[in-house]
Amino acid sequence: MEFSIATLLSHFSEDKLVAAKVLEKKLGCEDEESIQELQIVLDALERIGILVKERGKYRRVQEENVVEAKLRCSSKGFCFAIQDDEDADDIYVRESHLSNAWNGDRVLVKIIKEGSRRRSPEGEVKLILERANPSLLAQVKRDDSKYRAVPLDDRLLFELDLKQNGNNLEEAVNHLVHVSVVRYPIGQYGPLGKVTRILGSDAEAAADTDIVCCKHDLPQTFMPEVLKAAEQLSEASISAEIKKRKDLRKLLTFTIEEYIERDHPPFIENAFTLEKLRGKKWQLGIHISDVAHYIEPDSPLDKAAKKRGTAIYLGQKVLPLFPEAVTRLCSFAPDENRLAISVLMTFDETGQLLEYETLPTVISVDHQLSYQQVQSLLNNPEVIEPEMAEVVDRLKQLFFNLSPLIKAQRIQRGSFEILSETSCPYKDEGRIGAILVSSSLPVRSLLTELTVLAGKAVADHLFALGVPGIYCAQPEPDWDELEDVLKLANNLGLDQRLESDEEITSRDYQNLTQAFSKAPCVRILNHLLLSTLKSAKYSSHPAPHFGLAYKDCYTHCLSPGQRYADLLVQRVLKTVLTEGRDRRQKQAKTGVNLGSSTSHGKINWNVLPPQTQEKLEEELHAIVSHLNDREKLAEDAEKDLQGLKKAEKMKERTGQVFRGLITGVQSYGFFVEIEDLLVEGLVHVSSLKDDWYEYRSRHSCLVGRKNRIAYRLGDEVEVEVKSVDYYRQQIDLVTVGGGSAASNEDLEED
What we know:
Elements: H1 5-9, E1 18-19, H2 20-26, H3 32-47, E2 51-54, E3 57-60, E4 66-73, E5 79-83, E6 91-93, E7 106-113, E8 122-130, E9 135-143, E10 146-151, E11 160-162, H4 169-172, E12 176-183, E13 192-200, H5 208-215, H6 224-232, H7 238-242, E14 246-247, E15 254-257, E16 270-277, E17 281-289, H8 300-308, E18 312-314, E19 317-319, H9 324-330, E20 337-347, E21 353-364, E22 367-370, H10 371-379, H11 389-412, E23 417-419, E24 435-437, H12 442-465, E25 471-473, H13 479-491, H14 506-516, H15 522-532, E26 537-539, H16 564-579, H17 610-652, E27 657-666, E28 669-674, E29 679-684, E30 693-696, E31 701-704, E32 709-712, E33 716-725, E34 730-738, E35 740-741, H18 744-747
Parallel strand pairs: 11-13, 14-21, 15-22, 23-24, 29-34
Antiparallel strand pairs: 1-3, 2-3, 4-5, 4-7, 5-6, 7-8, 9-10, 9-12, 10-11, 12-13, 16-17, 17-20, 18-19, 20-21, 25-26, 27-28, 27-33, 28-29, 30-31, 31-32, 32-35, 33-34
Helix pairs in contact: 5-17, 11-12, 13-15, 16-17
């Protein structure tokens, strides 16, 4: 039995009674022992007042002043409970009120003191819903004959006794190890752990991917039953299935991938067609691997993918959503019949989307191309081989005609793009939330212009049919996050202001990126602007997407083999086509095409049977929080690896001097971004030995009391790499040159 209290409680909604048998099924309690354990948990939750039992069923009790939140702790011992609602106050939790909860745990917090204008509300942990640290990185220490693990993360305010489990703990003393938690603290008993792996003598001696995987407890292998289920999948079912689908194998079909050497074969799950229609119309086909055909709900493969939530990309190492056997079967390969869910979009000559249809198809790929090949074919048309002439003609139409028209529409509605060489493993905007433009590979962003339309079309379709769905939303950035970037831009003479003091809009970012393109430090400015964007979130309700400037709804659907949310969306689309009612009454002679946008506005009945509709709504609502948690975990892990690689690079450059830009100023020092490497380090105020420096927050600068030298936001300085803390990814710098005479304004007291 593997479930948390949070997962258990997610199956309760709107004061509905839920039977224990239903919970057993939803939580996968199949054997007698698991059923007994579930009953023990239900009894305990009933005893502490979280659940109430009525007529043999259970109902969630919504207690006043009790909220669900995630703990964020400080190394100094205090914590804040961060609520899911971004507008809600953070709740201060003293160390004495943590009830053995750790940093990152999801908890129920009871508010014991209301907040005021100057103070946060105060609370105490009532119940730990989900543990965030089933394992951790630690150093082994020995006291007499006892061994203990000291976590490297100083926000984890405890040490673990180590259990002898066959490993020679003497060999692990003073080494970096991966520790699995055997017992969390309870009553007078402290936490107990066991060493599962010795990583190295210290963080620098360990492999960076091992550190990231262990730190975030990322699964690196699949269970035997999952691998067995993957191997049992076969292509035998394709022959019969082809007859039920629209056959698109005669269309010229191509894939475009960015090939990066990795330890896992690429999952090529998107293919493209472009056909000329009558009346100067074009039909763009975006074909998505039909992973849902092979992955049955609640199967071992489905449960494993659901638990992982998303594939994670750690340099050359990939932690996939599915085993390699699934990739081989579902990935689009040249001259192979493949099942797909296709989004066929019809455009007029001005690039206006006239209509679209989603339907099951069978395709066969003619050309497998890389972004680099496409760029070369378009840049050098005189050296094209005869067998490539037809596909190059399609590519020209796609990238020189259709994509620029779609891009112009996006820019017109206020969306923006950010110059960055960061690669994305997805064809849409991915976790980034905005379209990135590469100076060396422009076709990548031009293709994204088109693939984003597929997500928009699918979202609009689900909403128009009134069926449940998973939507992808991105909130607007916080003013505090953007303020420093605006100050920096203005200090560099770009004179940028927001259109409104009331809200931040996508058009503000569009104006900023256009202004940044004229600055000499364009890479730094775009890098900082990108960091101000909030992560996209999944929701069971339509919501705006800031980066793409969609005010109603948008979703991800292109990567069902890499994102579990996309697989769920694919299942909903297929459910509509198999179970949906295309007419109000059976007696009606004609119905609407439930896969087509032509049905929008014509439906005044419930498309799905009530039982199916309700089941889907419950399932999608219950899983959204888990998917967001897994996306956040993946994002943190990927950023962690980037940070470790940058720290490693700077460690090798200790003692070297670089030119950089001051991108942040605080009372304790200023941050310098080294443009060539896009690496940030701190010049601590204590390293400025030539004077006593005072902080001027209004002008974002440090000013020398005697020498009147100022270090301002936007100033260029020369810095030397003094030291690097590899694990914490902290880079300490000292100034070698730079700073300028303080102005009268700089000298003013705040």
